[in-house]
TrEMBL record:
One biological process term in Gene Ontology: rRNA processing
GO cellular component, one term: cytoplasm
Protein name stated in the entry: Endoribonuclease YbeY
Cofactor: Zn(2+)
Keyword Protein transport attached: no
Task of the protein: Single strand-specific metallo-endoribonuclease involved in late-stage 70S ribosome quality control and in maturation of the 3' terminus of the 16S rRNA.
Binding-site positions, Zn(2+): 105, 109, 115
Location in the cell: Cytoplasm
Homology family: Belongs to the endoribonuclease YbeY family.
Keyword annotations: Cytoplasm, Endonuclease, Hydrolase, Metal-binding, Nuclease, Ribosome biogenesis, rRNA processing, Zinc
Enzyme class, UniProt record, top EC level: hydrolase
Amino acid sequence: MVIFNYETDFQLDNEEKYENWIEHIVESEDFYLGDISYIFCTDDFLHEINVKYLDHDTLTDIISFDYTEGSIISGDIFLSIDRVRENALEFGVDFDTELLRVMAHGVLHYCGYKDKTKEESDLMRRKEDEKMTLFHVEQ
């Protein structure tokens, strides 16, 4: 797992703990961790990606590009730190909790989980909650 920051000074406190957690998520879904990059960025930068590559003129907290092959999970996950902060306020949770949710969300998409229908969204939310608890387990 590789962490990049683009147009933001945001830094994870303990990158190794996050790396171990992401690997644990992937393995708990019976996949193997390949190359995953997390790119922490601004609303403006992620909006540009959303318009250019997905033809969506909206703000979003996450965009993921999936390069998974077979059982090896790989991809680029772009996260807007601005949007994560706003969503945390809106949902009444702290920033770290919302960050975990969004980070898990991207990897869960690579594991095959969708969120287009209500049923898919409900399952995704349950999986996010399940995987967030793994972060707090000693590794």
